[in-house]
Amino acid sequence: xxxxxxGGGVSVTVQGDAVDETDGVLERLAADGVPAALxxxxxxxxxxxxxxxxxxxxxxxxxxxxxxRLLPRLDELVERFAGLDLVVVAGAGxxxxxxxxxxxxxxxxxxxxxxxxxxxxxxxxxxxxxxxLLVVSGAETVETDGVRRVFERAFRDAGIDPAGRIVVxxxxxxxxxxxxxxxxxxxRRWTAASAR
Length: 196
Prior knowledge:
InterPro entries: SIS_dom_sf (IPR046348). By secondary structure, the protein is α/β, with parallel strands linked by helices. The chain contains ten helices and seven strands.
């Protein structure tokens, strides 16, 4: 059995045993305008105590449209780093998780480093460095900076210019921007204001 409810530009499909549990609830949410409010970036959906936190986290609802602005820059990076097929992503939390989900969805091999455990960092840097690209992503942390520095040194020791092997993705004006030879800013910070 399948149940599909659409409202406010959002479709939800429920299958199997979950249909009995959700039958009526989804239709009520659609009738109450919840999907439209969600797509409009209405942070009050989570109640007064969570409104401020929700306002800072609702930008994802428009990420598909906004990400199109990055496509020309991404094409440039693909061309610039052609031949580098061993990609290591150093980041914390969501930065690594998003990369993992995208890579798996496209069947792409990716090494994720969301730790500074020396054994894992060493293992990630064991691949042939002449084919390795390091992507430092997310927040400014001592951990991601440490991983970047380890790879920088490894590239230099191998006679490879780190500027041609490290991409930094982070907020404009941050120390990440200053640290990365190739800096890619997000299109803008995801806030309730930018989600409108």
